[in-house]
Amino acid sequence: MLIDAFGMIARGRRHLGGMGGAAKLPLSLHEVNPYLDRFEPPIPEREFIRAIFRMDNVVMEGEAKKQPASKAPRQAGQ
User: Fold this and answer.
1) Residue-wise pLDDT tens digits, 56-76
2) What's the CA gap between 12 and 8, in Å, rounded?
3) Contact of 34 with 12, CB cutoff 8 Å
4) Which of 5, 10, 41, 74 would staple 48 via disulfide (CB 3.0–4.6 Å)?
5) Which residues of the chain have pLDDT under 50?
6) 57-69 burial, b if ≥16 CB within 10 A, otherwise e?
């Protein structure tokens, strides 16, 4: 049930647009609260929020690994 809840909450994830495309932003209470307003969490609310944020951390770490390594800034004199 937590995975299903995470999937529903993550659909409302905000993105930050820029020259390089849109970057996913970490979930916040802004995305979790509408879920809690509509559905009863399967575990105590505080633990539910912690679990959602932990799952999001795993997703965000995976996204970061997918990104190509950025070029190191050039040193002066090169």
Assistant:
1) 999 999 888 877 655 445 555
2) 7
3) yes
4) 41
5) 71-72
6) eeeeeeeeeeeee
Q: Residue 16 is which amino acid?
A: L
In angstroms, the CA 5 to CA 28 distance is: 14
pTM over 0.90: no
Query: For residues 43, 54, 66 and 34, what is the CA-based torsion angle, rounded to 10 degrees?
Result: 60
CA angle 40/46/49 to nearest 5° reads 75
What's the angle, vertex CA 47, arms to CA 13 and CA 11, rounded to 5? 15
User: Measuring CA to CA, how many Å separate 25 from each of 8, 51, 56, 73?
Assistant: 16, 17, 10, 24
Q: Classify 21 as helix, strand or coil.
A: strand
